[in-house]
Structure to design on (529 residues):
């Protein structure tokens, strides 16, 4: 693959920064994660200084690994504090048998990233900081990019990451897989973080489609670290991956040529990524084992039925039953609204209106949008009232646009 | 918000339903529970299968199932959150169990460890 120089380094940064950081941090210990990040950063600085003059090396990744390994070795040898600070942290035996060797083989990279994923998703770290840490340390996003992606600002993200690193050091959290007895519980936290990371990309309000897709892709990539390891390749992980693949398959169909959001019902299904859907089905089959039904299983099931565009009655009956189960596992207003919509599709609008009126989500614009939609064709006056309330509550441009379209359709 | 238990009482638990009936009944039950859960009022629920049922009496006398002397048997329960017993009763009215003549749903408030109960 030919890539011009200006694009190559950012591309490599995205893929390799996290790999180098994870390997070095695992080698140095979690307390020295900032040193690992610095060395990875310096490595790219060296590339930016050298490559424009000497040309891009034949094997750019190999070049980066060699430079990073040398810098790490120098650091270990040179740093006065090494004997005092880092040496005692190194695993006994490892330091003597490997000396200052830095292992940047693909096996150790994968292994280190998987362990790092468990470390940054430690329950001692607040959820939002876990997402930030994963984006920084595992995905190589810069502070500004993270702030942009999470609709926050640089100072907040910096503080959040700083506190998270302090916490990791104070708690002495190992960059390691949890003991077998704890793995299921710890995995739950990891999956929640990956789920939120994906949703951040999929539902975020930012119009920057690049960063949104990137977040979703990274969430999928990190989840496959888990399926690549026998210990963590469990049904819940596969269910989450299936869910992500089904959703991500619609990326190309979600925006029109002007960048406006295209609602599901209006999407051109020829733009749906069939390969990704097929991958989702494979994960789904792997997820259908064991006796633990997670919210990811149920949500993957719902997402699967959405990959079938045709409005068959069985489609909506299945979606309705899955929402019935999901709400018992985990209530959320959006699931309650979607369930009611599925009820209208599977049965009839009257039943759905009766159920919708009970929800009383009076501050939620989507609640009134749903009521407006259900009343359309049954009582257009009520439909209009509800849509007008929805419009007053709507917070985003996309939502207002959608509601206005429904309102003007009523007037015709 | 209090918690109430809705206890399903079947008049004759020994009646065997056909698989088709069971399926219809399951769907109705899921819709009913889904409707409660959509209001964030569902806490938990379970069926109580009639097989492997025992009754332990005074002096440790064990009998098979509650189907001997008593006609009425428990078929399951659902725990809901409700602002009042009246709201809990409204939930109970939607239970498909009530389609069976003679079946009842008993609504009881769950003592909330307030030191009184």
């Amino acid at each position: 693959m030919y890539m011009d120089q200006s694009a190559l380094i950012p591309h490599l940064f995205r893929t390799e920064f996290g790999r180098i950081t994870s390997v070095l941090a695992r080698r140095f210990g979690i307390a020295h994660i900032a040193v690992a990040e610095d060395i990875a950063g310096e490595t790219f600085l060296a590339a930016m200084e050298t490559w424009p003059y000497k040309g891009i090396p034949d094997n750019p990744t190999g070049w980066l690994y060699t430079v990073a390994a040398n810098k790490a070795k120098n650091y270990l040898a040179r740093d006065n504090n090494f004997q005092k600070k880092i040496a005692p942290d190194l695993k006994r035996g490892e330091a003597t048998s490997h000396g200052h060797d830095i292992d940047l083989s693909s096996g150790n990279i994968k292994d280190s990233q998987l362990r790092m994923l468990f470390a940054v998703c430690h329950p001692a770290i607040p959820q939002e900081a876990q997402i930030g840490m994963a984006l920084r340390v595992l995905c190589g996003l810069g502070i500004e990019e993270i702030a942009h992606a999470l609709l926050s600002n640089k100072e907040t993200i910096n503080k959040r990451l700083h506190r998270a690193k302090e916490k990791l050091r104070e708690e002495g959290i190992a960059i390691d897989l949890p003991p077998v007895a704890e793995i299921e519980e710890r995995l739950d936290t990891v999956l929640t973080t990956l789920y939120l990371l994906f949703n951040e990309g999929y539902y975020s309000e930012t119009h920057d489609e690049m960063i949104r897709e990137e977040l979703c892709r990274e969430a999928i990539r990190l989840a496959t670290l888990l399926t690549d390891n026998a210990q963590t390749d469990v049904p819940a992980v596969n269910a989450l991956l299936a869910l992500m693949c089904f959703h991500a398959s619609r990326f190309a169909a979600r925006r029109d040529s002007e960048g406006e959001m295209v609602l599901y019902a209006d999407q051109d299904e020829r733009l749906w990524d069939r390969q990704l859907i097929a991958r989702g089905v494979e994960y789904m089959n792997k997820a259908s084992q064991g006796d633990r039904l997670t919210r990811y299983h149920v949500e993957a099931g719902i997402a699967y039925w959405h990959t079938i565009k045709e409005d068959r009655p069985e489609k909506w009956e299945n979606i309705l039953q899955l929402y019935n189960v999901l709400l018992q596992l985990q209530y959320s207003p959006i699931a309650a609204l979607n369930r009611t919509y599925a009820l209208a599709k599977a049965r009839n609008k009257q039943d759905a209106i009766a159920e919708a009126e009970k929800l009383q989500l009076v501050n939620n614009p989507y609640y009134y949008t749903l009521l407006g939609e259900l009343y359309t064709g049954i009582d257009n006056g009520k439909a209009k009232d509800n849509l007008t309330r929805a419009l007053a509550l709507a917070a985003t441009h996309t939502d207002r646009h959608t509601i206005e379209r429904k309102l003007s359709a009523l007037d015709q | 918000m209090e918690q109430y238990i809705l206890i399903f009482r079947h008049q004759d638990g020994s009646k065997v339903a056909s698989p088709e009936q069971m399926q219809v009944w399951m769907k109705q039950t899921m819709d009913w529970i889904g409707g409660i859960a959509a209001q964030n009022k569902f806490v938990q629920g379970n069926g109580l299968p009639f097989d492997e049922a025992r009754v332990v009496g005074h002096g440790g006398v064990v009998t098979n199932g509650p189907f001997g002397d008593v006609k009425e048997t428990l078929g399951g329960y659902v725990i809901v959150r409700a602002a009042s017993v009246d709201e809990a009763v409204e939930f109970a009215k939607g239970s498909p169990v009530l389609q069976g003549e003679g079946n009842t749903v008993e609504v009881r408030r769950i003592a909330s460890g307030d030191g009184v109960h």
